[in-house]
Design goal:
alpha+beta, five-stranded antiparallel sheet, 10 strands
């Protein structure tokens, strides 16, 4: 019996080693072919979206960060002078997931062409974003984004949406907007302007006589660092505001949570988020149920669970991950507020 068991173990070990070696060999044999295929696909896309060039744009690249996402910019040159820029951009606001696109700009900023590289949109509906001369593409082609209101017409913008595919059309527009920001960074040397925190600080009956934005401090809580602002008048503390970040459904959510000195929530503002349109993105609305659950209340006296769990928080229907991220951000901010007040 003992001998049989040893033989079985040895046999399984040999089979495992052979399988691992075979997989490794197959990977080695196909790795170069896969890389060559990807390079060929990238070059084909570059040729489709860039004005004529005589260099190899695939080796003339720089990566910049836009809204916490890495965006690669390829430069096409003719006679050594930039003829255009191709931006490999992404949006996480698609109806069925991420959409990757290549947006080509002429040197002066007009859009030369756009190609969709990857998407999972609904066949026959959102999938039309990949069609030649679809209405969203036509709205952009040959035009400079600086001259456009970068929203679909339904939202008051200049971009025609695909019929019955508003979410996919919005996502396409979001990707182009991100590409244009990357183009400006590389081609024009512009620094990307982040949101002005002063626009999100709380407004109360008494105006601070200090400079809240200029007197921010960093507070350690757990393994994270948080930026904390405070407003005072005649030496009296009016409020404390904490920047808090949590992981949303699509990307990190950045919020500013403001407290009165006794811990009551005065305001909650979403500064940056990339949640899905008509779903998690509702957290950016001033009247969303999550915000309403916290305003005027002390989180320390609340049961930070959703109503269906027996708690005190109203979530957003169909957006449980985003709703939990929102609650986590407020909870984290409250702990930082307590730490700040204990050391003040």
């Amino acid at each position: 019996m003992e001998s049989t068991l040893k033989n079985m173990i040895l046999t399984l070990l040999v089979i495992t080693l052979i399988s691992a070696g075979a997989l490794s060999m197959v990977y080695s044999m196909t790795k170069d072919a896969i890389e060559q295929s990807k390079s060929a696909k990238t070059l084909e896309a570059l040729e489709g979206v860039l004005p004529p060039f005589d260099n190899n744009p695939a080796t003339d690249t720089v990566t910049v960060e836009v809204n916490n996402l890495p965006i690669k910019v390829y430069t096409g040159r003719s006679g050594g002078v930039p003829s255009g820029y191709a931006v490999e951009t992404i949006t996480r606001k698609g109806y069925s997931g991420d959409i990757r696109m290549m947006v080509g700009f002429e040197a002066g900023g007009d859009i030369y062409n756009i190609e969709v590289l990857e998407h999972s949109e609904t066949p026959g509906l959102g999938s039309k974003i990949a069609d030649d001369n679809n209405p969203v593409l036509v709205s952009f082609k040959g035009r400079n984004p600086a001259d456009l209101v970068m929203k679909v017409t339904k939202d008051g913008g200049d971009i025609d949406a695909i019929t019955a595919s508003t979410i996919s059309s919005r996502a396409y527009t979001d990707a182009v907007e991100r590409a244009y920001a990357a183009y400006r960074t590389v081609a024009l040397g512009e620094e990307q302007a982040g949101p002005d925190i002063a626009d999100y600080l709380p407004v109360t009956g008494t105006i601070p006589d200090n400079s809240p934005a200029g007197e921010a401090v960093m507070v350690e809580a757990g393994a994270k660092s948080y930026r904390v602002y405070h407003g005072t008048h005649a030496g009296e503390l009016l409020w404390v505001a904490v920047e808090s970040v949590s992981e949303g459904y699509n990307a990190p959510i950045r919020m500013l949570v403001s407290f009165s000195p006794d811990g009551t929530v005065l305001d909650i503002s979403v500064i940056e988020q990339m949640e899905s349109e008509d779903y998690g993105a509702v957290i950016g609305d001033g009247d969303n149920p999550l915000r309403a659950s916290f305003i005027g209340r002390d989180p320390g006296s609340m049961k930070l669970l959703f109503r269906y769990e027996g708690g005190d928080v109203d979530g957003i229907s169909g957006s449980s991950i985003t709703s939990q991220a929102y609650v986590d951000a407020v909870s984290g901010a409250y702990k930082v507020f307590q730490e700040y007040m204990s050391n003040r």
